Every structure is written in C-alpha cells, then in structure tokens.
C-alpha cells in the first residue's frame, strides 16, 4: 500500500512538472493581468496630476525635463545601438553608472562591511556623483571586459587596467591616471640569482591570462602557464608549481613580502613601465567628461587625498 | 575565521542551489517535450529536434552561456538578459536536451506488446502513456538521472564566466586576499550535497524495486 502511494506521488510529481510546462501561457496571462493592473494604476497616478506635476515643475524644471528625454533616447538607443546617441545622456537617463571591476586591492576591494572601496572605487563613486548618477559596482570576468562594455552590461572598466593597444582598439580610453610596471616575483631565497633578463629563461613562469605581464613574457619569448587571476599566479609560486610569476608592481607592493600571506616571496626585475586608465565604450563622449573630472579632482586635492589613503600616492598622476 | 568563510561561501552556494533547482524545475518537463519531438512520426519535426539536440549536446556549455548572455548585445545591439537569467536559460536548454535522451531511452525500453495490449483494451494513447508506460519509465530512468543531476550540480561552477557569483567564485575571491584554503573548502559543500542526492536516489530506486 505504502509503495503504491509513493508510486502515485511520483507520478503526480511528474504530471505537476508537466503542468508547470503547460502553465507557461497561463503565466503570461497572469502577466497580462498584471500589466492590466499597471494600467489601472496609471489613471490613479494621473488622477492627481496636480500633486505629481507641481513639485517637479516648480522645484527643478530640469528634472521634469529629464524623464521626457528618457523615453525618447532610450528607445532609439535600443533600436540603433549607442553609435549615434550620447553615452553620457544614456548613463544619466538610466540614473546609474555601472562600473566593471574585479577584486583587486588596493584599487577595488570589499571593506569588512561589504562595501566596495579602494583608490579606483572611491574615485569612481566621485565620478558618478559628478554625473549625478548612482555608482553600481559589478564584478566581471576580466577576460570579457571589452565584451561587457560593448554590450552595455557595464558602462566603464575602472579597475587598475593597464592601457594596451588591444584595449585602445576595443574601447575609448581617456588620459592615464596612474603609473605601473610589470615585475618578476620569485621566492626570496632565489632572488639574488635572477636579476637579469637573460637569467629568466631558466625559470618556469605563471601569469594571468591575457594580462600585461603575459605580454611582456611574450615579447621576451619566455613560455608560461596562463591562469585566470594574478592571485592564482602568486599561488603557483608559493606552492612551487612555478618558479616565478609576473604581476603588477602595485599589486606586488600590497600582496607579497613580510606581513602578508606570502612572506617568502619578493619581486626582483621590473620588465617595463606602463600606465593605468579607465575604459569607456568605443566612441563614448564620457572620455572628455572623465578628463575634465580628473583635472577638477586634481585641482581640489581629492585625487592626492584618496591616493594617500590607499598608499598609491607615488604612482598616481595628478593633472 | 572559519565561520566568516563558511557563511560567505554559503551565500555563494545559495546561488548554486538556486540555479540547480530552477534548472530542474524547467528542464525536466521541457526534456519530456523534446523527447516526444525526437520520437515524432512527423519526420520534419523529428529531424529538427534531433539537429537541435545534436547542437546543444555537441557544443560546450561554457560557449552556450557566453552566447546567450553576450550574443544579443554583440550581434543585434539588444539589451542583455540579467546575468542569472541568462545562466539559467542556457542550463535549462542544455540539460533539457540531455534529459530528453534519457526519457527517450526509458520510453522506448517499454515493450511494444504493452502498447498493443492497451490498444486491445480500448485505451487511448494518452491513457496508455500515463497508466502503463510512465511509471515504468520513471523506474528505468532513475539511475541515469541521478548521474545527470550530480553532473548538473558541478556544472553550475561554469556560470562564473559571466559573473554569476556561485560558490567557486566566492571561494576564489578569498585567494585574492591571500587566503587559499577556502577555494578547496568549497569542495566539501559539493560533496555533502551530492552525497544527499545519491542517498535520495538509492532510496527511490529501492522503493520502485517491487516490479520488474
């Protein structure tokens, strides 16, 4: 009897899942009635046009104008892509600046309270403020950053990004705001033996896939293992899986040496010098807005103040 | 420390489980529909379904996730689906195709004579399916389904490629702070959950063992 009951229950379960499938149109029906509700709500809103309209019109006529603008450019942006529309207007209309980042101290990282902080995060918040929009941070897969920009999944990449030819080709990059370099990291015990470029050829390397460090190793013709983050490359060296890795100077300063999780690692040779920049969509007019913002923030001392707070004052570029 | 890490990982595992259960909810019935399509007597529908199943099963799930999330924006300048929705959609389509083949195997394993017997008794095709075939199908597909479900739990780790913060992503974010063990600790969550699934499927198998 019990078994029969269970069998019946299982059949019911399967039939129910079937019903759930057939239920899709029914759900749409539900949505229709929901939108019906929305429609019935609209008259409610318009029922008190005096209340709704008056404060907007009197207090901030600009605000009142903006929603009108919103409707039109949004529609056109959807149909024709961002090519001809102003990116600044697009961001201001939707009211948020979506900032693509990774967890990358000291530029973007989470405070104990779970809020995104860091030199880049704080400056990005100030930039969003200057546009009059809310900042929204999204952790992205770094390999996909250009795709994220192009598809409008994010509005800006602001994450200690090295300016490379590849980035300049796929996105619009304003003036650089920070100096950086790629350094070789080895166990401290081995440091003395590897101080020249020639000596590096004997080592096995780990590096973040597609990073500026990987580019340097390509130039030198040194083979390497590519991993998905710089932190993973450090882990390779710490575990002995690779002899050395190439990471950002800024990151090396923050993550290795005494008082960190990698006390036995040190950085030796600097392979190049490069610059950090942010990236906007190709052809975006936010580039000029950013350059103006950085000049203003430099003049007001905000840039230096924030840089000092996160220990990057020696690398930052003040205009 | 262990508690902070565990609670952070649990939020990531919440996303993993949400993806798992929602995929099941939609892919189980959709799989049955696809299996009917690939057994259809109407040959154009049959070939169409079989081609679709071939494409979905024959290409990496990782690529399908990338295409479903970025594709609309890259190709047509359309607004994107929310990240989780895109991940869910690719999982539902992918797993429905795998399930459909399991259902097909189960349905076709029921001897032809039983359909004929049903017909002789004057039952409609619907009655034959629900009263004779279905329970036997359920019994037969339980072992391969268990296999597929365990694979599904582990495959959810792929969605971090489009920035859905499941448990491996959460574990990996600790390595950026120099903490390595949480990444490997995530394995324990998978093991415990899959252990539960295994036991559940054993029990169901035992309960349905009263008929051959």
Walk me through what this model shows:
The complex is a heterodimer of chains A (319) and B (212). Chain A has 319 residues and is of the alpha/beta class. Chain A has 2 domains: 73-177 and 277-309, Periplasmic binding protein-like II (D-Maltodextrin-Binding Protein, domain 2), CATH 3.40.190.10; 179-275, Periplasmic binding protein-like II (D-Maltodextrin-Binding Protein, domain 2, 3-Layer(aba) Sandwich), CATH 3.40.190.10. Chain A is 50% helix and 19% strand. Chain A has 13 helices and 10 strands. Chain A has helices at residues 2-22, 24-47, 49-59, 61-80, 87-94, 119-131, 145-150, 165-170, 212-220, 230-239, 249-255, 286-300, 302-309; strands at 96-101, 109-110, 116-117, 134-139, 156-162, 178-187, 205-208, 224-227, 244-248, 265-280. In chain A, a hairpin with a 5-residue loop joins strand 2 (109-110) and strand 3 (116-117). Chain B has 8 helices and no strands. The radius of gyration of chain B is 21 Å and the shape is flat. Chain B has helices at 2-38, 43-58, 61-76, 83-108, 112-120, 125-155, 167-175, 181-207. Classes of the chains: A alpha/beta (319), B mainly alpha (212). At the A-B interface, helix 1 and helix 10 of A face helix 1, helix 3, helix 6 and helix 7 of B.
């Amino acid at each position: 009897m019990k078994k029969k009951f269970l069998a019946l229950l299982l059949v019911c379960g399967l039939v129910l899942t079937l019903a759930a499938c057939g239920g899709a149109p029914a759900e749409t029906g539900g949505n229709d009635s929901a939108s019906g509700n929305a429609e019935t709500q609209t008259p409610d809103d318009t029922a008190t046009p005096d209340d709704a309209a008056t404060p907007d019109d009197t207090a901030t006529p600009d605000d009142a104008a903006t929603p009108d603008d919103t409707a039109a450019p949004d529609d056109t942006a959807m149909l024709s892509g961002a090519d001809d529309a102003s990116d600044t207007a697009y961001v201001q209309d939707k009211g948020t600046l979506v900032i693509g980042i990774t967890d990358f101290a000291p530029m973007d990282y989470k405070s104990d309270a779970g809020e995104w902080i860091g030199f880049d995060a704080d400056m990005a918040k100030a930039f969003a403020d200057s546009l009059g929009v809310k900042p929204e941070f999204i952790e992205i897969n770094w390999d996909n950053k250009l795709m994220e920009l192009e598809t409008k999944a994010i509005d800006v990449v602001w994450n200690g990004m090295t300016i490379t030819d590849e980035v300049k080709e796929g996105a619009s990059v304003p003036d650089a705001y920070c100096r950086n370099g790629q350094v070789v990291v080895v166990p401290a015990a081995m440091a003395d033996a590897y101080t020249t470029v020639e000596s590096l050829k004997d080592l096995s390397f780990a590096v973040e896939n597609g990073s500026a460090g990987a580019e340097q190793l390509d130039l030198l013709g040194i083979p390497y293992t590519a991993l998905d983050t710089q932190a993973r490359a450090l882990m390779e060296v710490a575990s002995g899986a690779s002899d050395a890795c190439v990471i950002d100077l800024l990151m090396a300063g923050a993550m290795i040496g005494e008082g960190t999780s990698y006390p036995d690692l040190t950085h030796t040779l600097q392979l190049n010098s490069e610059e950090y920049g942010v990236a906007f969509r190709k052809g975006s007019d936010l580039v000029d807005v950013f350059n103006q913002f950085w000049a203003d923030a430099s003049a007001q001392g905000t840039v230096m103040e924030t840089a000092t707070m996160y220990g990057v004052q020696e690398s930052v570029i003040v205009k | 420390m262990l508690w902070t890490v565990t609670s952070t990982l649990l939020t990531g595992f919440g996303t993993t489980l949400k993806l798992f259960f929602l995929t099941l909810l939609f892919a189980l019935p959709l799989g049955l529909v696809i299996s009917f399509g690939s057994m259809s007597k109407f040959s154009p529908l049959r070939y169409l379904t079989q081609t679709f199943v071939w494409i979905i099963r024959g290409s990496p799930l990782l690529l399908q996730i990338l295409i479903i999330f970025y594709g609309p924006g890259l190709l047509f300048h359309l607004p994107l689906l929310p990240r989780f929705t895109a991940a869910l959609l690719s999982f539902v389509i992918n797993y429905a195709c795998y399930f459909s083949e399991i259902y097909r195997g189960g349905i076709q394993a029921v001897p032809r004579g039983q359909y004929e017997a049903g017909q002789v008794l004057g039952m409609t095709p619907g009655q034959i399916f629900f009263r004779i075939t279905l329970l036997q199908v359920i019994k037969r597909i339980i072992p391969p389904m268990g296999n597929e479900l365990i694979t599904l739990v582990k495959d959810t780790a792929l969605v971090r490629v489009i920035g859905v913060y499941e448990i491996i992503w959460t574990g990996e974010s600790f390595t950026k702070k120099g903490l390595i063990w949480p990444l490997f600790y995530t394995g324990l969550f998978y093991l415990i959950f899959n252990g539960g699934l295994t036991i559940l499927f054993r029990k169901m198998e035992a309960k349905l063992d009263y008929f051959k």
